[in-house]
Specification:
Methane Monooxygenase Hydroxylase, Chain G, domain 1; SPTN4 protein; Spectrin/alpha-actinin; Spectrin_repeat
């Protein structure tokens, strides 16, 4: 049993052999106590004085032989345990390599079937899932590093065929390297998709704002009097300031488009979208300029109407005063009325 060359062909078999070897070691330990007791009893016969049933030397030789055999048995047991433990380390190493390859294959299949999403929401969801996968990758990398160290330790012992160990380590390293490359490529594609959908969302927001602003600046409401026209003009000037602030965002669209991945920036739809935004912005600016001029014209007209109305009121007042005026008969009273009339004329600028 102890000189057997069967060291197992897989981890479970080695574990079974180690368990059986443990029982054998326990049996050897129990027999060692019995042998030592028998040897001690036998040596007493070699120490007898007088009659000796056997030659003491024969007894001593026999005891030494049994002790030597027992020691050899213990050495064989220790040697076999070491070999079995080394075999367990070897097959444990191969099992860890197999588990690593299985895990790598699963992740490769997942990455091969993954898309980059259809909109901003799905891309963000996939990005979060990919971050979780990167965390798993980091944990698995640490485990794989430990397994590789075990492989190096097995090679250093030089008790097993190094070819199989080295080949398995090389295969796993290559597959791991490929997995990291595929993971990095997928992460890059996710980032490119995220940049594209963020660009599209920002462009859509800009278009919606420009459309709302166009409806505001194209309004035909110019007020109904001086006060309302002034209020509309103030609001319009605030809108014009906002339009000017958005000029940089519109001009930056082409730069942002150039930074997108080729598969995204070369699409006809996205290029047309950028042109539409630029044209819409130009229309908003043009209509805003016209509306500001129209508001200023309306304000000027309402102010003129206000001044004309003031003149009409003044003229009506003077007509009524003249109609009611009586020419005094006394010279002094005539001079007073004359001074009053001249003062009223001086106080009014009819040309205004």
């Amino acid at each position: 049993l102890l000189v057997s060359k069967d060291l197992g062909k897989h981890l479970l078999e080695v574990e079974d052999l180690l368990q059986k070897h443990g029982l054998l070691e326990a049996d050897i330990s129990a027999q060692t106590e019995r042998v030592q007791a028998l040897n001690a009893a036998a040596l007493k016969f070699s120490e007898l004085e007088g009659y000796q049933p056997c030659d003491p030397q024969i007894i001593c030789n026999r005891v030494n032989h049994v002790q030597t055999c027992l020691e050899e048995l213990g050495e064989l047991a220790s040697k076999r345990r070491k070999e079995l433990e080394d075999s367990r380390q070897l097959w444990a190493f191969f099992q860890e390599m197999e588990e690593a390859e299985t895990w790598i294959r699963e992740k490769e299949q997942i990455l091969a079937s993954k898309t980059c999403g259809r909109d901003l929401s799905s891309v963000l969801t996939l990005t979060n899932k990919h971050k979780s996968m990167l965390g798993e990758l980091g944990s698995r990398r640490a485990l794989l590093h430990q397994a590789m160290k075990k492989g190096e330790q097995l090679l250093a012992k030089k008790r097993f065929n190094p070819g199989g160990i080295q080949e398995k380590m090389r295969e796993v390293r290559l597959r791991w390297k490929k997995l990291e490359e595929v993971t990095g490529l997928h992460q890059q594609r996710l980032q490119e998709a995220l940049n594209f959908f963020q660009f599209s969302a920002e462009t859509d927001d800009l278009v919606a704002w420009l459309q709302d602003t166009y409806r505001i600046v194209s309004s035909d409401d110019f007020g109904h009097d001086d006060y309302s026209s002034q209020a509309l003009l103030r609001k319009h000037r605030a809108v014009v300031e906002e339009v000017e602030k958005h000029r940089a965002s519109v001009l930056a669209l082409r730069k942002q488009l150039a930074l997108l991945a080729p598969e995204h920036r070369q699409g006809v739809d996205v290029q047309i979208r950028v042109v539409e935004v630029e044209q819409l912005y130009g229309e908003v600016v043009e209509v805003a300029v016209l509306r500001q001029q129209w508001l200023q014209d309306a304000l000027a007209v309402y102010r003129m109407f206000s001044e004309v109305h003031a003149c009409e009121v003044w003229v009506d007042e003077k007509e009524q005063w003249l109609e009611r005026m009586e020419v005094p008969e006394e010279l002094d009273e005539v001079e007073v009325v004359q001074h009053r009339w001249v003062g009223e004329e001086v106080g009014v600028d009819l040309n205004s």
